[in-house]
Design brief:
The complex is a heterodimer of chains A (61) and B (185). By secondary structure, chain A is mostly helical. Helices cover 52% and strands 0% of the residues of chain A. The longest helix of chain A has 23 residues. The N and C termini of chain A lie far apart (62 Å). Chain B contains seven helices and two strands, in the order αβααβαααα. Chain B has a two-stranded antiparallel ribbon with strand order 1-2. The chains are: A mainly alpha (61), B mainly alpha (185).
């Protein structure tokens, strides 16, 4: 277990600089799947959704 | 922090999207919505597929997504990479604004009343669910297994009645990304 930095709560330049250095670990998750436009991805799956929903609806009858 | 020299300067402000981008975005929407209409002829056979689309609202949605993309680029990029917002966030934002603005309505007001009375949602929530499913299944065909009838009902109910934030929708859609994808690309 890493040793706790007991001085981390103090307001000083070193701690402020360390906070900024660690900025990357607070970056939001961002999973780009490829370079396609989001609507192009959606349109590639829409036909399948259409066929599946129609198939299920017809099976219910 | 924005450098002082850029504040109130012509050099630093949001530059709106080009009109061509708005037109292209609406055309892509229409392509997807056409497939929704073809689905609706079976699922909601007693209703017409004659809809009014509020195009300025769609422009506004596309512009809002672009604004958020710029925000993301500014606040999340670093020296190593420019943070381009992911498609999952974009589709989530599109669905969020779709259910907020509700740009789609039956041309016939009585159909609009009847549809809501019978289903408890408007065509906007049902279409948002369709679009969201299209995206998730566009990523991986096998994802259709996650959208049982009950799951779709829960989704349309939630989009209609529950307080779904942009971030909650982003998380919902990101939860379908099971494969490793390129990060920060």
């Amino acid at each position: 277990m890493a040793e706790l930095n007991k001085s981390i709560g103090e307001n000083n330049i070193e701690n402020a600089a360390a906070f900024l250095r660690n900025k990357d670990i607070r970056t939001a998750p961002n999973k780009r799947v490829n370079e396609h436009d989001f609507f192009d991805i959606a349109n590639s799956g829409a036909e399948k959704v259409k066929n599946e929903l129609i198939r299920r609806n017809n099976t219910k009858r | 922090m924005i450098p002082e020299k850029y504040i109130s300067s012509d050099d630093f402000r949001y530059n709106s999207v080009e009109p061509e981008i708005l037109v292209e975005g609406v055309e892509k929407f229409k392509k997807n919505f056409q497939l929704y209409k073809e689905t609706a002829t079976t699922l909601f056979a007693e209703y017409s597929t004659d809809f009014r689309i509020n195009t300025p609202m769609l422009y506004r949605i596309i512009e809002r997504i672009d604004q958020r993309k710029d925000y993301y680029l500014y606040f999340h990029s670093n020296k190593e990479y420019a943070m381009k917002m992911s498609q999952t966030k974009e589709i989530a934002l599109f669905c969020y604004w779709l259910i907020k603005y509700k740009p789609i309505a039956f041309s016939n007001a009585y159909e609009e009343f009847n549809f809501f009375d019978a289903h408890g949602y408007t065509v906007n929530e049902m279409y948002a669910a369709f679009l969201l499913m299209s995206f998730v299944i566009g990523l991986e065909e096998d994802n259709i297994k996650y959208f049982s009838e009950e799951a779709i009902f829960t989704l349309t109910y939630s989009l209609s009645n529950r307080e779904i934030s942009k971030e909650a929708l982003i998380l919902y859609i990101e939860s379908f990304l099971t494969e490793e994808v390129e990060s920060h690309a």
